Model the fold of this input.
Amino acid sequence: MAPACNGSSNIHVNLPEIKFTKLFINGEFVDAVSGKTFETIDPRNEEVIARVAEGDRADVDLAVGAAREAFDHGKWPRMSGYARGRIMMKFADLIDQHSEELAAIDSLDAGKLFSNGKAMDIPAAAMMLRYYAGAADKIHGSTLKMSRPLQAYTLREPIGVVGHIIPWNYPTTMFFMKVSPALAAGCTMVVKPAEQTPLSALYYAHLAKLAGIPDGVLNVVTGFGPTAGAAISSHMDIDQVSFTGSTDVGRLIMQAAATSNLKPVSLELGGKSPLIIFDDADVDVAVDLARFAIFTNKGEICVAGSRVYVQEGIYDEFVKKSAEKAKGWVVGDPFDPIVQQGPQVSKEQFQRVLTYIEHGKREGACLLTGGKSLGDKGYYIEPTIFTDVKEDMLIGKDEIFGPVMSLMKFKTIDEAIEKANSTRYGLAAGIVTKDINVANKVSRSIRAGSIWINCYFGFDNDCPFGGYKMSGFGRDNGLAALEKYLQTKSVVIPLVDSPWL
Done:
């Protein structure tokens, strides 16, 4: 396994200049009211990248005030959908023009692979903007057939000022997963990026202004969850909150929304997703898919295939090949093109993952491979696989959010379904089989929002994404995401002397 790179790496990359570190409110970059700043850390070497404005309730008030004015009296909600779409298309073009710099910023801030960011995350963000730009002029109501002399129709109107609270694992993807449909709907918004990864959100605010999005429509307040995030959740002038993150924080947001103005909430929360591999699977293909499902983005992904169930007929072969493949997984500097896994996002997350690995050892799971940190600097962890995991172990039931796979054996289809559903989460699941009848039965039996058959991470702009159970509610992506930023208004008019109803 390749050792982790650190600050003395010989990799030559043109690291970006950090241009934007202040709050973005009403079209301007401004200091926090308190004057406070906080450090954002490079997880490759534990060095400070920049100091960023630390927004709190006072700054959220200013941002919400700007968004409220832009919604109540500004032109964005009153533009035609076509006009909004044109500006969003320009925004997407600007992202494409700065893709390398943006990918580098997310690599510095989050430890994400630079090659993946440049080839996938950043272009996908522009593509998502264009998807919703195309939907902006296709928001239609309905004509209703009433049962008495009344004429009625529905209007679809933007819900108002939206608060977006986004996580650190996919800073760009999550920013546009929230912002794009809200912009298309005609909403205005306040975005709070994760305190671990604030930099790309501020850059996107700059590009939004260049694209022609009016002042006050898109505001970015960097800061911490208990202050800035809590202020958004409880604000009386915010009309809806969309959150992606932990289940515990999701509870707090729901409570704050309920005790303030009963704003609707959309939550995409944790996951402990099962990957079920049947005897008829090609073992080599299944091993690669399982490795991809858990070690992608260093395991920092809500739908990571962290529980791998393998049918007993191929279990031993699968275990042997999985260990071999994990040892060849290259961990190191995310700017190195041969690296497959960068550092965990922060010291806190690094220590959290290592603590769960120790829990696994103490609870009696068998450490097949990995389990240790790498290097003297940075937050690097070996890809780790446990066997003999039980569903009641902490590593079997808690979301670790790191490169830790739990391998388990099953005999029958019904046993696999029961085990897959034995979790408080329900975000995603994977099925590997050549039997269409097995695929159909299992996909309809698992309680999760996304089921991927003979593939994993089957995301697409047109495909709704969200959870069952304690993985949350509401859907991102697709036209379902657009719906949550719209209100339905019924308009009814009497029919007088009409020849028909």
Summary: The chain has 15 helices and 24 strands. The longest helix spans residues 114-135.
